[in-house]
Design brief:
Distance between the termini of chain B: 34 Å
Largest interface: A-B, 33 and 35 residues
Radius of gyration of chain A: 35 Å
Mean pLDDT of chain B: 89
Oligomer: heterodimer
CATH architecture of chain B: 3-Layer(aba) Sandwich
Number of strands of chain A: 6
Mean pLDDT of chain A: 80
Number of strands of chain B: 10
Helix content of chain A: 55-70%
Number of helices of chain B: 9
Strand order of the largest sheet of chain B: 6-7-8-3-9-10
Low-confidence stretches of chain B: none
Structural class of chain B: alpha/beta
Chain lengths: ~725, ~240
């Protein structure tokens, strides 16, 4: 199917979903009425609260029964000795609580407290003697009343203490207090702190309320209306239908959230509370922009998660039953943002929802770490993709139609039939698993190496290889087994000609020069770049590596990544993506994924690796497309890595030879023109050889594609097998 | 044309399993109306769902114009029209929007779809309803819209699941006319129903389905000779008793 037609069709499918949900009056209620009503009411409540707390400034109220009692209490409280020591007053904001004492002869103080007329009731017996007994009444469970009583009791306690001290000093002039107490504050009050703590919670609430109704309506609602079967009976790709629904849910969610935001800021502005929240006098344009960006992230995430859950459901009721726990669960991480001391680092950067809540907090507080933000965004995108792939698998599926109890398990059921390639959904699932597992394995490895100083270089190298095999090697293998995909076609294990082989070697020999240039360029543009510290660290580890034999180095840093990463990226992922996308998109998307995974190494993000690795991914991807095989990519990858490793290993010798030849260069500068010319020649010749070797194959494929049925998009790809 | 060959499907129960469809075979020629008849739970709907690729058969296959459902579901689905009594509409879309949506699902080019929409609407007498919101339609109107929807991509094979369920006399008459139209334009039609009296008037050939097994197939004349009964109802009663 031509691309433009597909685009138009997909656009129309999206339009239908949006129309259907926007026209629904119930959507409008959540979309507009909620924010229009809720925020003014909330602001009134807030105003009311501020007014009430203003009353507290006028003092706590105390009720006594007689004028004599009032006089006595007043005399105590107005005595400067009843004030707490200076240190305590300083640490509690220099404010001394005030009290308003009233006399009510008709009601007992206890009753007055019980009726909530006053905060504290007071009775003084034996008032005539010099040893009166004082009883305070407070309302059980009422924090204001209890606090008032605590304060007044404390005041009397200070008074007693001061009296005792005076008495002591009179009788014992030598008396000194046993110790002196001083108090000091540390740390800083963060700017925007109130906004940064409240907004993440508000964002979660906004996006969930926005997404719930459309998500249910467009999935479970379809079943309930009786339109599901007709849609499933049509020849449309289930992924398209679900993608249209996802688009509609995200758009409605965004609208709801924006309406919420507008209502919230307008209300705050109108009621003069905006400054209080943002901590500034200027209108917070930047904050609003940041919140819009966060909204896209939040709604993208929640829409996918909610859709994947409502796809299980057969009715509105069932869908609601699934969603309520999720909504409650989502509020817990949102509360995290209210806790100081929890920061967006380590494992928290990949924890779903928690990572974006913390990201929202840090972004608004202006303390965000770009590396952590990057990991949080990438992993959230991966989770959303995984949720959507689950939804696409379950939406309208037989499993859901028949028995809901079996539908969760069906995710792990191997299909009965063997298929040639994995589905894009399965690939998305695999990637979503790969992100956290790779993160844990590589971090674990680094920790292990750091913890044990005496591990030999050999063991370290082997562990490195094992980490790669157990992630990029094992996961695609498991995924292919679970999907019952034929290994030969999934990992694109096909033979290729000698021309392509020679071409690949030449490409591998020449490509590094361009990767190097991209690296230098990225550094000049300020993307990543190596700090002095990083370079020193790298030098140290290179020196350590020299203890191992060059063969082991080649095995670990050239053979293993070449085989494992190629089977993963140009094997499994390539065949999965090629199943649905054009060759160009397949090459580009696998290259970007390849680049991204090279950024995610352990705990440090090597952003500077993104551009060179993606570039390599593009070259290898193109070769993989032309030859229809994973092997030439392995050759390029191996030659490239091997070359770099040998150069590093024999650095001194190499530098010597180069300087003798007069073509030496530095690690961080552009290559001399001669080098670039040689490398370009290698790449051009290599690419030409690959191109020549695969002309016949591509032609045959094109002929088959045009000759085949219009609806049958899977056929052209299967020529991979026919070709070999 | 449609060929169903040895279709078999079992569903797991708490204990053991139930064989919903058992070695079912039949074929329908262009211009022929085949009645797949049987009481509730005989396996009629499951059979249609297997033909459509909504349920995977344990064994056997369905073939439409030379394409098998299991091998080429997209080619099969685009050649099948499907209308069921339980079909609903999108309440917030206009009738036209809904019909064009299904045209998109079937990958009918937009210009062709618009023309076909007008043509079929005129044929089924729903032209005046095209811009009404689907949620406001009466049961009879809704049924006609659904019938048009099933034909929007001009499929050579039509599958009708209990098309007369819940309809009044006028509604049933509409179905009769619709099926007559399908026969005229040379579609292969499968009608699943338990209304044997209606089936007698509608169909050219019959398959009597009971407990997932095809008991008898043939024209009304052939069935009469085989069974010695005059009406389908009598034949079925005997079948159920034996």
């Amino acid at each position: 199917m031509p691309n433009a037609i597909l685009k138009g069709r997909l656009l129309r499918l999206c339009q239908k979903e949006i129309k259907e949900t926007i026209r629904d009056r119930r959507t409008i209620v959540t979309l507009l009425l909620m924010p229009l009503l809720v925020y003014p009411i909330m602001s009134m409540a807030l105003n009311r609260f501020l007014l009430t707390s203003g009353e507290i400034d006028d003092g706590f109220t105390i009720c006594v029964s007689t004028e004599a009692e009032r006089e006595l209490l007043d005399s105590w409280l107005s005595n400067p000795l009843s004030a707490p020591p200076k240190e305590i007053i300083d640490s509690s904001g220099n404010e001394l609580a005030k009290f308003m004492v009233s006399v009510d002869e008709d009601t007992s103080p206890a009753e007055a407290v019980e009726r909530n007329d006053v905060d504290v009731g007071l009775e003084i017996s034996n008032i005539e003697t010099s040893f009166p007994t004082v009883t305070f009444y407070a309302y059980r469970g009422d924090s204001v009343s209890l606090a008032a009583r605590r304060v007044v009791v404390e005041r009397l306690q200070w008074l007693k203490l001061a009296d005792a001290e005076l008495e002591l000093q009179r009788t014992e002039p030598e008396y000194r207090p046993p110790y002196q107490v001083n108090v000091t504050d540390v740390g800083q009050v963060a700017e925007n702190s109130l906004l940064a703590t409240i907004v993440p919670l508000v964002l979660v609430l906004m996006t969930i309320t926005g997404a719930v109704y459309p998500a249910i309506d467009l999935t479970a609602g379809e079943r309930e209306r009786g339109t599901m079967e007709a849609v499933m009976a049509s020849p449309v790709n289930r992924g398209y239908v679900l993608f249209s629904k996802y688009t509609a849910v995200v758009i409605v969610t965004l609208f709801t959230a924006i309406a919420n935001l507008l209502a919230m800021f307008t209300t705050l502005w109108a009621s003069g509370l905006l400054g209080l929240l943002t901590g500034g006098t200027q209108f917070p344009w930047l904050t609003i922009l940041q919140m819009l960006g966060l909204l896209v992230l939040f709604s993208g995430f929640f829409s996918a998660v909610l859709l994947s859950l409502t796809s299980f459901a057969r009715s509105f009721k069932e869908a609601q039953a699934y969603l309520i726990p999720v909504m409650l669960l989502s509020l817990t991480p949102a509360m995290l943002s209210l806790m100081p001391g929890v920061s967006l680092t380590g494992a928290l950067t990949i924890l779903p929802l928690i990572n974006i809540v913390l990201l929202a907090r840090d972004l608004l507080a202006g303390t965000v770490n770009p590396n952590s933000a990057f990991v949080a965004i990438i992993s959230t995108t991966a989770y959303a993709a995984a949720a959507l792939s689950i939804a696409a698998k379950l939406f309208g599926s037989d499993a859901v139609t028949r028995t809901s109890e079996k539908s969760f398990g069906s995710l792990l059921h191997r299909p009965r039939e063997v298929s040639l390639q994995p589905t894009p959904q399965a690939a998305a699932m695999m990637l979503a698993m790969l992100v956290p597992i790779y993160f844990l394995v590589s971090n674990g490895l680094i920790r292990f190496i750091q913890a044990s100083e005496d591990t030999s270089v050999q063991i370290m190298l082997l562990l490195n290889a094992a980490a790669l095999v157990s992630t990029f090697g094992l996961l695609p293998l498991i995924a292919a087994w679970l999907g019952r995909n034929r290994f030969k076609t999934t990992f694109r294990i096909h033979t290729f000609g000698p021309l392509a082989f020679i071409g690949s070697i030449l490409l591998g020999l020449g490509a590094w020069a361009f990767a190097h240039e991209a690296f230098v360029l990225a550094e000049a543009m300020g993307i990543g770049g190596l700090s002095e510290q990083k370079i020193a660290g790298a030098k140290e580890s290179i020196d350590k590596m020299r203890e191992a034999s060059p063969l082991l180095l080649i095995a670990v840093f050239a053979v293993t990544p070449a085989v494992i990463e190629e089977l993963c990226f140009r094997g499994y992922l390539f065949s999965a993506i090629q199943n649905t996308f054009t060759p160009l998109r397949t090459v580009v998307s696998t290259a970007i994924l390849f680049g991204l995974f090279h950024v995610l190494t352990g705990n440090a993000l090597l952003i500077e690796r993104f551009i060179p690795s993606t570039l390599m991914g593009l070259v290898i991807g193109w070769v993989a497309y032309r030859t229809g095989s994973v092997f030439p990519g392995i050759v390029i990858h191996f030659v490239h890595n091997g070359l770099l490793n040998l150069v590093v290993y024999y650095e001194e010798g190499v530098q010597e030879i180069l300087s003798v030849l007069g073509v030496g260069f530095d690690n961080q500068t552009h290559l001399p023109p001669l080098w670039l010319a040689v490398a370009s020649t290698l790449v051009v010749v290599g690419a030409t050889l690959v191109w020549l070797s695969s002309r016949g194959r591509i032609k045959a494929q094109a002929a088959l594609a045009t000759g085949s049925d219009q609806h049958d998009r899977k056929l052209p790809e299967s020529t991979n097998t026919a070709d070999t | 044309m449609l060929i169903v060959e040895s279709l078999t499907k079992s569903f797991p129960l708490d204990e053991g399993e139930v064989r919903a469809v058992d070695e079912l075979s039949f074929s329908v020629q262009p211009g022929e109306v085949f009645g797949l008849l049987g009481p509730n739970g005989a396996g009629k709907t499951t059979t249609l769902r297997m033909v459509l690729g909504l349920v995977k058969p344990d064994s056997g296959y369905a073939e439409v114009d030379g394409y098998r459902t299991a091998d080429n579901p997209i080619a099969v689905k685009s050649r099948l029209g499907f209308v069921s009594a339980s079909d609903g509409v999108y309440p917030w879309l206009s009738v036209r929007e809904m019909l064009l949506y299904f045209a998109d699902l079937y990958d009918v080019p937009p210009i062709k779809a618009a023309a076909r929409c007008e043509h079929l609407a005129e044929l089924m007498g729903i032209t005046s309803l095209l811009d009404r919101r689907a949620g406001t339609l009466s049961t009879g109107q809704r049924q006609r819209v659904t019938l048009v929807r099933g034909l929007i991509h001009d499929p050579p094979v039509m599958l009708l699941d209990e098309p007369t369920r819940g309809l009044d006399v006028v509604g049933v008459q509409t179905i009769f006319e619709y099926i007559e139209h399908l026969r005229e334009v040379g579609k292969s039609v499968v009608v699943c129903t338990h209304r044997l009296d209606e089936a007698e008037r509608l169909c050219d050939r019959f398959g009597l389905l009971h407990a997932g097994r095809m008991q008898q197939t043939g024209t009304l004349e052939q069935l009469r000779q085989q069974s010695g009964h005059n009406h389908l109802v009598e034949m079925f009663v005997e079948l159920l008793r034996s």
